[in-house]
């Protein structure tokens, strides 16, 4: 099964479009041998876990694209939805709900009827990496999916990058040089008619050490909503 956001015209028998042969998601992808082995071990140990590449989640034509790092072992890798079922999603979904971007303030499971409005969550890497640390080659390998998905999201006004790795992966997917757009929390980078807004990642480590506080995160998401032309609460 291969997923696309907006098929253009299907090439007969391929499941791909004629405009571009790259899917935005392949649940059977094994391009990264280390991650494929890790997922296979996960499926053996935890047969009730999703245990596959995790697809993006949210509006099909969003104004804001939130870029995360990778699935967490007991979060997205368990539930099959980004930032769902573990600590990292708590502050994210609370904040999205406060700004009217999520229908509920928490995300428990992929079938919990939560809906995102005008926002979509994508990850730099779609498979859970050991110790939450993907290798540079894995980030490069998965970037083809991210680049293709961004290519198809034409109405986006703001990219909100959660952490430096997401920031760098986004620039890679957009074909932009890292040196020109250094990562810094709350920094806004104009990208033509769009913007890139940076935030520290809303991980358990960052929130428990208060490197990222709820107020700091609300300020960043509020700035992203303002730049995207969305009404503020
Ligand atoms: S991380 Fe991305 S490229 Fe690598 S195996 Fe998973 S889906 Fe494929």
List keywords for this structure.
single chain; 233 residues; alpha/beta; Uracil-DNA Glycosylase, subunit E; 6-stranded mixed β-sheet; 7 helices; binds iron/sulfur cluster
Please tell me about this protein's structure.
The protein has 233 residues and is α/β, with parallel strands linked by helices. It has one domain: Uracil-DNA glycosylase-like domain (Uracil-DNA Glycosylase, subunit E), CATH 3.40.470. 32% of the residues lie in helices and 12% in strands. It contains 7 helices and 6 strands; from the N terminus they run H-E-E-H-H-E-H-E-H-E-E-H-H. It has helices at 33-45, 76-79, 88-98, 136-152, 164-174, 204-208, 214-227; strands spanning 57-58, 64-68, 119-123, 158-162, 188-191, 194-199. The protein has a 6-stranded mixed beta sheet. Helix 3 crosses helix 7 and helix 4 packs across helix 5. It is globular, with a radius of gyration of 17 Å. It starts with 32 loop residues before the first helix and ends in a 6-residue tail after the last helix. Mean pLDDT is 92; it is low at 5-19. The structure holds iron/sulfur cluster (SF4). Iron/sulfur cluster is lined by residues 29-32, 35-36, 53, 125-127, 138, 141-142. Residues 29-32, 35-36, 53, 125-127, 138, 141-142 line the site of iron/sulfur cluster.
């Amino acid at each position: 099964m291969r997923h696309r956001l907006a098929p253009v015209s299907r090439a007969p028998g391929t499941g791909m479009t004629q405009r571009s042969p790259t899917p935005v998601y392949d649940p059977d992808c094994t391009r990264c041998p280390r991650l494929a082995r890790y997922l296979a071990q996960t499926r053996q140990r935890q047969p009730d876990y999703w245990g596959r590449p995790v697809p993006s989640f949210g509006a099909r034509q969003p104004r804001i694209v939130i870029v995360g790092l990778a699935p967490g072992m007991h979060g997205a890798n368990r539930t099959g939805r980004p930032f769902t079922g573990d600590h990292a999603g708590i502050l994210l979904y609370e904040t999205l709900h406060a700004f009217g971007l999520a229908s509920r303030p928490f995300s428990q499971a992929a079938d919990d009827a939560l809906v995102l409005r005008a926002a979509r969550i994508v990850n730099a890497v779609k498979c859970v990496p050991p110790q939450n640390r993907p290798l540079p080659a894995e980030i490069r390998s998965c970037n083809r999916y991210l680049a293709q998905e961004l290519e198809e999201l034409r109405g986006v006004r703001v990219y909100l990058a959660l952490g430096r790795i997401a920031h760098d992966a986004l620039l890679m997917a957009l074909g932009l040089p890292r040196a020109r757009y250094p990562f810094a929390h709350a920094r806004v980078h104009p990208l033509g008619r769009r913007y890139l807004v940076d935030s520290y990642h809303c991980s358990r480590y960052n929130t428990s050490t208060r490197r990222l506080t709820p107020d700091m995160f609300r300020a960043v998401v509020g700035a992203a909503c303002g730049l995207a032309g969305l009404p503020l609460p």
